[in-house]
């Protein structure tokens, strides 16, 4: 998984206005992060909850469908969630130029 | 609320490739929909769960922040969630041209 994760990190680091990138395993543990430990743990757990809920809901609506990504906009920033098989990536982005 | 809801519906009906639009109150009840009753009830309940979870998570991460919208991409379509004070709007869109 490690090479795959590194490649993903590189890819997302190229996105403009990135505040942080966290790679989270399916147990909600941050396995790689550009944020400090406290923030990473905080985001990882919370985003795991949202990702699981979204996966569940999409499957419940249509068992042949699959949740592929999510973008949440908040007053301060945007959060992108990209699930993969054994982990998911959280990208926190400042939407202002 | 009704005039506000009508205005929102008109606004979102202009978006390309719309499959359906549902206005859902904060109890998860579809109060307006362009889909049939069964689909509306199904989506309303599930999307209310996701919206509530997102609201909660964003507030937990920063009590001064606010969840303003969400876009979920799946293998088949995209779902947009736009929360308002007493209701939220679900727009299901086919991403293909």
UniProtKB/TrEMBL annotation, chains A, B:
It is found in: Cytoplasm, Cytoskeleton. It comes from the Eukaryota. InterPro entries: DYNLRB1/2, Roadblock/LAMTOR2_dom. One of its GO terms (cellular component) is cytoplasm. SMART domains: Robl_LC7. Its main location: cytoplasm. Signal peptide: none annotated. Residues 5-93 form the Roadblock/LAMTOR2 domain. Keywords: Cytoplasm, Cytoskeleton, Dynein, Microtubule, Motor protein, Transport. Coiled coil: none annotated. One of its GO terms (biological process) is microtubule-based movement. PANTHER family: DYNEIN LIGHT CHAIN ROADBLOCK. Belongs to the GAMAD family. This is Dynein light chain roadblock. It comes from Drosophila virilis (Fruit fly).
């Amino acid at each position: 998984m490690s090479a795959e994760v590194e490649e993903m990190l590189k890819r997302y680091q190229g996105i403009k206005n990135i505040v942080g990138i966290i790679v989270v395993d399916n147990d909600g543990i941050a396995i790689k992060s550009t944020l400090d430990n406290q923030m990473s743990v905080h985001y990882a757990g919370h985003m795991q909850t949202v990702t699981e809920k979204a996966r569940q809901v999409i499957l419940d609506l249509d068992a042949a469908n699959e949740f592929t990504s999510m973008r949440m906009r908040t007053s301060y920033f945007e959060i992108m969630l990209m699930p993969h098989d054994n982990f998911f990536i959280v990208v926190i982005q400042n939407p202002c130029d």
